[in-house]
Specification:
Length: about 300
């Protein structure tokens, strides 16, 4: 089967890149495990790294002999990565918290912005558990959440400022959940919300062309307009199944209790995405807040 897939599919994809590509390097935004494994399956080894402008820019990287799919690799030589966990741990017992970068690659500071400098820089002594960095006296707080496994591989959980707390006290980091939902061929974009709420909800941008293709293939009749399509009960049932499939490995408190569909994608042009294609949550809430809040007002028995 693998030989057949290689002949019919993988070889054609490799040919699009010239036929000799052996390695791919990913940075700037997270690459999902599923995508990385697909690229690996093509016979192209993918290496993911991480860094910021403030860290000049690379801080960690996977490399030959030290690679783990799903991680951003280990700290590069001359750099120390420390997790400011405040006692928080992952299910496997790893300290989880803000990723702090120490090294001579860290910037000197923002130009004439002392208040911003004070917010992002910290000294060695902030790490009370004894794993203090050796590379430099000053660390840079990245604003990213993550953890380091027992082999030194760093994993990103999400953005500190994006996490929120449910009514039950559980903290939710929405970005990984959104990336998982977007693995569905019917979802162009997603925003998960639940700040101080009893459960999470999702605003999903429907891939209308893919939905029409699905309906045509299965002999399902749909209305003509995009707005009517996303409101169609048959389409909602499709999305219920997609959410259940994509979220099958989530923790219970991460599950989506309800969702709403829209047909207009998030873009930088309409103000829903940043130039680096990250969701602008405040802008999405300003535009779709009424739709999202309405999900909490529905009778729970109807969900």
């Amino acid at each position: 089967m693998l030989k057949l897939a290689n002949k019919l599919v993988f070889s054609k994809v490799r040919a699009r890149f010239g036929g000799r590509l052996q390695y791919a390097f990913s940075g700037g935004a997270a690459i999902s495990r599923e995508v990385a494994e697909f690229i690996d399956g093509l016979g192209i080894t993918v290496y993911e790294g991480y860094g910021l402008t403030e860290t000049s820019p690379i801080a960690t990287a996977n490399r030959p002999g030290a690679r783990r799919i799903g991680s951003i690799g280990k700290a590069i030589p001359g750099v120390d990565i420390v997790i400011d966990s405040d006692g928080k741990k992952t299910d496997k017992g790893y300290a989880e918290g803000e990723i702090v970068v120490f090294g001579h690659n860290v910037m000197q500071g923002y130009h004439r912005r002392p208040d911003d400098d004070a917010a992002v820089f910290c000294g060695r002594d902030f790490a009370p558990w004894g794993d203090r960095p050796k590379s430099a006296d000053r660390g840079f707080r990245t604003g990213d959440m993550g953890y380091i496994d027992n082999e030194g591989f760093v994993f990103i959980s999400g953005r500190i400022k994006e996490q929120y707390k449910l009514e039950n006290g559980k903290y939710v980091v929405p970005t990984p959940l959104e990336e998982t939902l977007k693995l569905s061929p019917f979802v162009l974009n997603a925003m998960v919300y639940g700040d101080n709420k009893p459960f999470n909800v999702a605003l999903l941008v429907a891939n209308v062309p893919a939905i029409r293709e699905w309906a045509s293939r299965d002999g399902i009749s749909l209305p003509a307009s995009e707005d009517a399509i996303v409101a169609d009960p048959k389409v909602r049932e499709l999305f219920k199944r997609e959410i259940a499939e994509q979220a099958s490995h989530w923790k219970g408190f991460e599950s989506v209790g309800d969702f709403t569909l829209v047909s207009e994608d998030f873009t930088a042009e309409n103000g829903m995405l940043t130039p680096s294609l990250k969701v602008k949550r405040r802008a999405v809430m300003e535009r779709y807040g009424a739709l999202i809040e309405a999900l909490y007002k529905k009778d729970k028995g109807a969900r």
